[in-house]
C-alpha cells in the first residue's frame, strides 16, 4: 500500500486521542489528493480550542469539529503564528479526523521558540475556529513564573465564573487543572438541586450517571460548550491531571466508591473514561494512558512535577467504620493502618521517579501539582466520631440538625481548651488535654490515609535541601498548610519540609454545605474558620465558603499564593470578593508560611 501524505496523517491521527506532529510549514491544501472526503460538508466549532502541555520547543493544540451531517470523517487544517493576526505562519498542516476520536484533534507543534506565545486556529470546510494562545516554557535564567490553579467544576452545581476570571489574567505562564474537570453524576446526583433553576441541567441524552465511552464523550462535549471554560482554554495553555470524578467518586486502582453492581467491570469503565479524557483534553499522549505523571521545567526557577494520585497505584481507602475509635486499641490499629509502608498512593514506580527528580533538580522551586491535600488535617477523635454520625444520618435521609448543632458546640468547646493550652494555662487538666491532642485525619481519601509515602517525599525534600511547594485541589475549599514530618521520620523528625497551597472549587460546594454553615453571617463563618485553624496544628489558612481559584507566583526569592473568590456561582451576575482575598508567601531557604 502506498501512503500519500493525507493517508499518513490520517493514520497518525487515529486511535486513543492521538496527536499529529507538526514540524513547520507544509504549504498544505485541502485538495491535494482525490479522497472522496474532500467533499465540503457543513461543520461548526462548538467546543472552542485549547492548548496544553507546553515545553520549551513544543505545544499541544486542540479542537473538536462538529459535523452537521452524518459523516464518519472530516478534513482539518491548522495554523500557528507568533502574531494574533497570523501575518506570518510558523506551522501549518492538514489531516483527516473521524468518529474514532469523537472528531477531536490534537496537534503537537514542534520546533517552537522558548518563552514565546503562539497563536493558533483551525479551518475545516470553510469554517475557521476561534483563535487560541499558548506560551512555551522558558529556558535559562528567568525572573518569574505564575500559575493559575483550579479544580472541581461541577456543571449542574453553578456557573463557571471562575474560568471566566482566569481568562482575564494577563500574566499567566500556565493554568494548572488539578482534576474533577467533569463530574460523573446525572441530573439527580451530587450538588444538582439548583440545576433546573440555573439552566444548568445536563442534556437529555446525557442526564444519567456516565459509564460508557459515549457517555463520557457527551459529558465533555457538554462542559466544553460553556463560554467561560472556552475562554480560559483559549487564553492560556493548560497542564492537567485527573482526579476521581473524571472516572467516578473516590476512584482507586481497582475500584471506586461510586462504581456499583450493575455498572459493569470497573476496568472497562475506567478505560472508557481515560480514552475520553485523552481525546478531549490538551494533554500530550503517552504509550500507557494510566501513566500521566510528568515534569515541566521553567528555566532555572521551577520544576513542576505533575502527579497521579488516583489511577496508577492507589490502594483502596481505609474505612473508619472498620475500627473502634472509642477504644485505645482501635485508635492504635487505625493509626497503624494508615501509616503502613505497604499502602500506596503514588506506587513505587512513580514515587521513585519523583524522589529522583527532587534530588537531582537544579531549579529554585520544586512544585508538586497533584490532587489531594498533603497537609496533616488531624482533628480530635471526638469531632471525628460526631462527623461520622452526621454522615451516616445524612446518608439515611434523616434530619442531622441536632447533630450539626452539637458539632458547632463541640468545635467551640475544644477550641477554647486548645487556646488555653497554647496560652500555657496551668489549670488545663490531663483529660482536657487528651480531648484535643488525641487526633486523627478527617479525610482518608487524602495523603492522610497514605502517610508513609508522604514521609518519604518530605524526607527527600529535607535531605536534598529543596524548596518544596505542594499544590492541591479536591476538597472544594481553600487551605494553606505547613508540611511537617512525623516524629518517626528517619531523615528529620517534626521538621518543616515545605508548604502546601490548595485551591477552592470552580462550582462544587464545600464544607459550608456539609456543616450547614450560615454563610450569610460573616461573623459565624470567620468564627468556624478560626476554630478549625486552631484545632488543626499544621493549618495556616482556610476558606470554607467561597468558590474561586488560586494564583501562585514564583521568583528566586519567594513563592506568593493569592486566593481569588467570586461572590456567587448561583447567579449569572457576580462580583469579585476583594475583601476575602488572602495572600501567603514562603521565602526560598525558609519553609515557613507567612502573611504576604
From TrEMBL:
It comes from the Bacteria. Residues 147-563 form the PhoD-like phosphatase metallophosphatase domain. InterPro entries: Metallo-depent_PP-like, PhoD-like_MPP, PhoD-like_sf, PhoD_N, Phospholipid_Metab_Enz, TAT_signal. Residues 47-136 form the Phospholipase D N-terminal domain. Residues 1-27 form the signal peptide. Pfam families: PhoD, PhoD_N. CDD domains: MPP_PhoD. Keywords: Signal. Coiled coil: none annotated. This is Alkaline phosphatase D family protein. The lineage of its organism: Bacteria, Pseudomonadati, Pseudomonadota, Gammaproteobacteria, Alteromonadales.
